[in-house]
UniProtKB/TrEMBL annotation:
Superkingdom in the source lineage: Eukaryota
Subcellular location, record wording: Mitochondrion inner membrane
Protein name (Swiss-Prot/TrEMBL): Mitochondrial import inner membrane translocase subunit Tim21
One CC-aspect GO term: TIM23 mitochondrial import inner membrane translocase complex
Organism: Amniculicola lignicola CBS 123094
Job of this protein: Essential component of the TIM23 complex, a complex that mediates the translocation of transit peptide-containing proteins across the mitochondrial inner membrane. Required to keep the TOM and the TIM23 complexes in close contact. At some point, it is released from the TOM23 complex to allow protein translocation into the mitochondrial matrix.
Lineage: Eukaryota, Fungi, Dikarya, Ascomycota, Pezizomycotina
Ranges of biased composition (kind: Low complexity): 41-51
Signal peptide segment: none
Subunit description: Component of the TIM23 complex.
GO BP, sorted A to Z: protein import into mitochondrial matrix
Renumbered residue ranges of the record's region Disordered: 41-73
Keywords: Membrane, Mitochondrion, Mitochondrion inner membrane, Protein transport, Transit peptide, Translocation, Transmembrane, Transmembrane helix, Transport
Length: 258
């Protein structure tokens, strides 16, 4: 059997030949007693280390237990934000979400109907070719194009003639209302009548507009366009009665034969 090598014994054998300087350094090593572990203690230490490794690699079951999510709050009509899935809702919560979605849908539909109504009336009264605003602008253009009216109002330049609706009692009102009426006679002809005011350096005039649209027509045509200036006779820019009279056949013996 091979002998064990012990460094302390080797140093003891070499002690006589060691240099005197190294002896104080090696003295603690030479004096340290040699302790051999007992077999029972060695087995106990090995078992303890093994158990410690097993404990480290396999933590307690309480630490590996999954964390349970916190309980969620009940879904109501007010606090529902749609984050909870439909399948996770109770019957009462499903009813609350249905009520909320129905209210939102009704609100959106109401807004859409309101916007459509405003757009319809805005187009009919402003942007449509048959709107009152369009006919007002055309009538103003016809009045400004009349040399006689410009002369009587004292404005050689048509751009100096202003046009506006009815006078307002509020001095802060910038837009003046244009008085108008619409009616349909027994023959199905639609009539639109309105008036406005034009002003020049020499005074003011009242413009009367009468438009008519027969059932076979798609647009209004002038029935009468008259301008009243104080101190002067009424001026007709359009007059359907005069046109009918000029086209009427002459009478022979008190009767028209064709």
């Amino acid at each position: 059997m091979a002998a064990l090598y012990h460094p302390a014994e080797a140093v003891q054998l070499l002690r006589p030949v060691l240099h005197p300087v190294l002896r104080p350094v090696l003295r603690p090593v030479l004096r340290r007693p040699r302790i051999r572990p007992h077999p029972t203690a060695l087995a106990t230490a090995t078992a303890t280390a093994t158990a410690r490794n097993v404990h480290t690699s396999h933590p307690q079951s309480s630490s590996t237990r999954p964390n349970t999510p916190p309980p969620r709050r009940a879904v109501t009509v007010i606090n529902d934000d749609g984050r909870v899935r439909w399948s996770e809702l109770s019957p009462g919560e499903k009813a609350a979400r249905t009520a909320q979605q129905g209210f939102n849908l009704g609100f959106v539909l109401l807004g859409a109907v309101g916007c459509g109504t405003v757009a319809y009336f805005l187009f009919r009264d402003v942007f449509s070719p048959n709107s009152k605003t369009s006919h007002f602008n055309r009538a103003v253009t016809r009045v400004r194009a009349s040399p006689e009216i410009c002369r009587l109002l004292g404005s050689p330049d048509a751009s100096q003639i202003s046009a506006h609706g009815e006078a307002s009692h509020s001095r802060w009102a910038r837009n003046r209302f244009i008085a108008s009426t619409e009616e349909t006679d027994k023959f199905g002809t639609e009539h639109m009548k309105f008036r406005f005011f034009v002003e020049g350096p020499n005074g003011q005039a009242v413009v009367h507009v009468h438009l008519a649209k027969r059932p076979s027509q798609s647009e209004y045509e002038y029935y009468a366009l008259a301008v009243d200036i104080k101190g002067h006779q009424r001026i007709y820019l359009e007059n359907a009665e005069e046109r009918k009279g000029s086209k009427a056949a002459p009478k022979i013996f008190g009767a028209r034969w064709w």
